[in-house]
Amino acid sequence: MFRLWGIVRKNNKIIMDMVSEYNGADLSEQDRLHRCIEEICYNLDLERPIWLEKNQREYQEYKRTVLTQDNFIERINFDTLELEVISDDEPL
After folding, report:
1. Quick check: 50 and 71 in contact, CB under 8 A?
2. 74 to each of 22, 36, 57, 68, 71, how far by Cα in Å?
3. Which CB contacts under 8 angstroms, 24+ apart, belong to 29-36?
4. Angle (CA) 20 67 87, round 5°
5. Coil, helix or strand for 59?
6. Percentage of residues in the chain having pLDDT higher than 70
7. d(CA 28, CA 18)
8. Which of 70, 67, 71 is nearest to 59 (CA)?
9. Cβ proximity of 37 and 48 under 8 Å
10. What is the DSSP letter of 73?
């Protein structure tokens, strides 16, 4: 099971969060990640962010990344969207 935690922060406080799960093994890790990001953004009513090279490096190294205004085309009313894998049953 792939679980991704999305945390929206403003002034260092969590204002919204959500955990998205994907149970299928039919997709690659990147596809599961992006499917969970879509679900989080849809349910929290956020614009879908632009996935930058910085985010890919952070994700590959830490299984976590922080998205800021640079990742969004429109102005955002929060400081960061943090994405962190909290469960991934795939072998390393």
Report:
1. yes
2. 28, 21, 24, 11, 9
3. 29/2, 29/88, 29/90, 32/2, 33/2, 33/4, 33/59, 33/85, 36/2, 36/3, 36/4, 36/6
4. 30
5. helix
6. 95
7. 22
8. 67
9. yes
10. S
Reported as a single tens digit per residue, the pLDDT across 41-74 is: 999 999 999 999 999 999 999 999 999 999 999 9
Averaged pLDDT of the chain? 92
Please report, as a single letter, which amino acid is at residue 16. Answer: M
User: How far apart are the C-alpha atoms of 8 and 18, rounded to whole Å?
Assistant: 9
Task: Using alpha carbons, select from 9, 78, 82, 12 the residue that is nearest to residue 40.
Answer: 82
Contact (Cβ atoms closer than 8 angstroms) between residue 19 and residue 89: no
Token code pair at residue 66: 């922080």
Rama region for 12: left / alpha / beta (φ>0; ψ in -120 to 50; rest):
left
